[in-house]
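Below: protein 1.
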Amino acid sequence: MIKITGMLIVICSSIFAGRVLGNRVKLRVEELIYLKKLLLMFRGELDYKNAMLPEAFMSVAIRAKKPYDKVFDELSRTTESNCTSTMAVVFETVITKYLKGNTYLKNEDLQKVYELGDTLGYQNKIMQLSNVDLFLDRLNVQIQEEREKMNDTVKVYRTMSAMTGLFVAIILL
């Protein structure tokens, strides 16, 4: 009786682990899509409202959900008051502080956002908009690639976790 209970617990927990891993893949894609939405808002602030960077960051911060609201709020405050650091340093510091470990974005995703920060703040409006557009294009490609891989990856996680649970349960017999 105890062996059967243990086997059921092992099987159920491994299936649950597979579902959790699969959901993380889906949530990462959703995070990338939300990041794209925020950057489209930011681009609109720069282009149509002719807002300066601190104003554009603050406008996005007001409409963003956590933890992105804190990111854009601090970017606004930092860019308005700090003239000694480059935008790349400010971006890396703020994004590492609020997004690393608090979202489903991977380090490679955050690295790309750091690169966006490197291109903002010292060029004219047209160049900044072009850099944001370039980043959005790269983000679109990445989202498309992740969506294509997502279903297969989720299936692999779920299948392998169930098979691992069954294998361990058989070994326990």
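Below: protein 2.
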Amino acid sequence: MVVKDASVVETAMMIQFWQRGYYQTTVDDLLTVSQLSRTQFYRQYHSKRVALRRSLERYQITLDEQLDQLIQREWARQTPLPALIAACLRLPFQSERWPAGCLMVNLMAEIGSQDASLMAQLQTIYADLQTRLVGLLSPQAKTLPTTVAEAAASLMQVRSGIQLLAKQDPSGAQLKQQAQTSVNLIMGAV
């Protein structure tokens, strides 16, 4: 029996859920993308719902890693804060290997309040992203027209709006322009 790397398996399942949605994804789909046998799948994940939860954990890890890389790269380039924040807001929509839109928002819309534990997991990921934005904004707090937390909340709403725009499959340039304009308005840079 070949043991597969959990991160590779969970990334493949994450992308499957992202492309097809929770209800449209079958266990057979997950077996195909993960290349696990039915026995391996049930031994490791027990159910489709557990596979989704583990996929969301992988999503958060991957998003955190990519945000760290993006922030380090853009700070090294001395990118202005509004442009850096706009890039952070667009991040989940610009990877060529990830589907358009945002997995969190997609799942919130699809599953909604039907699963309290899943909703709590999604809200935790969302709060972590908002905390990351607060961390970026904190040095600029005195120059912002609103409090840092209010600005971060507004930016997260922009992120949701960008997600809806991304579902319409616009170009990367359109997403970038929308994010930059929204961030500039929120931060009073316009």
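The two ends are 60 Å apart (CA to CA).
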